[in-house]
Write a structure and sequence with these properties.
The chain has helices at about 15-40, 60-80, 85-105, 115-140, 150-180, 200-230, 240-250. It is mainly alpha-helical. The protein has one domain. It is elongated, with a radius of gyration of 20 Å.
């Protein structure tokens, strides 16, 4: 036992899974960036990421959601051995649920509203819960304590972005009513004057914050595992900078 918490072995972290998580976030980011170029008719200021399903390249959106879900699930697999407390296990479960929802959005687009909304709710809401619980748990562990600040800040960004996303909807609807006298029955081609629409940006911030937390956690997982392994072998512990240099050299 360690200060009342179950002892964990950082050497049990799955480095390949953590690397897959980072690679998947990079792939998802690249696909999202590509969609902005391939489908410029969807303004990022007020059109949702899911609307790319009705654009010219829906397969790119599906691939993005697959990579999105894979990043969360791979991270869950990578750090599962590090989460022995009740809150840690709850966070791990939330991360798995979130990853499943994110991946399911690839199969259930916005033209299947019920299933798409369910997948979206699981993927969007469960991620901040898992991020906060996992980061809080890991930051208490000796091997992870030096990364505590980065883990906590990136985790908090996930729920802050969710709050901004939720707040953006009533703001947009209220200004639509003020500008047009009623809500439009379909998205207009151009945004009417006076409408404050930031939901597109907050939607993108939502996914970017999730990818940032996954990447930060996965990178530190690799560092913690390598540090523990070299320390056990009687070598001097690696620093994050040394790990970065070693990774580039490899």
């Amino acid at each position: 036992m360690n200060d009342g918490y179950p002892t964990i072995d950082p050497r049990k972290i799955s480095v390949p899974a953590a690397a897959i998580a980072m690679a998947a976030t990079a792939a998802a980011l690249a696909l999202l960036a590509a969609l902005h170029v391939l489908s410029p008719e969807y303004s990022p200021a007020w059109r949702m990421v899911s609307e790319y399903a009705n654009g010219r390249y829906p397969s790119a959106l599906s691939a993005m959601f697959v990579a999105y879900g894979l990043s969360s699930l791979a991270l869950a697999f990578a750090i599962r051995s590090q989460l022995k407390t009740r809150s840690g296990r709850m966070g791990l479960a939330a991360l798995v649920v979130s990853g499943a929802g994110q991946a399911a959005a690839a199969a259930f687009d916005l033209n299947q509203p019920a299933l798409h909304e369910l997948a979206g709710a699981l993927g969007i809401v469960a991620l901040p819960i898992g991020a906060v619980l996992i980061s809080r748990t890991l930051a208490r562990e000796p091997g992870w304590s030096s990364a505590g600040r980065q883990l906590r800040w990136s985790a908090h960004l996930t729920w802050i972005s969710l709050v901004l996303f939720v707040v953006g909807f009533p703001l947009m609807m209220a200004t639509f009513v003020l500008a047009l006298g009623a809500l439009p029955s379909a998205p207009p081609q151009e945004l009417p004057h006076g409408v404050v629409a930031i939901v597109g940006w907050t939607d993108r911030l939502l996914v970017l914050s999730a990818w940032a937390w996954v990447s930060v956690t996965a990178w530190h997982a690799i560092w913690v595992q390598r540090t523990a392994t070299t320390s056990k072998a009687g070598q001097a512990p690696a620093t994050p900078a040394a790990l970065d240099i070693e990774t580039v050299a490899d």
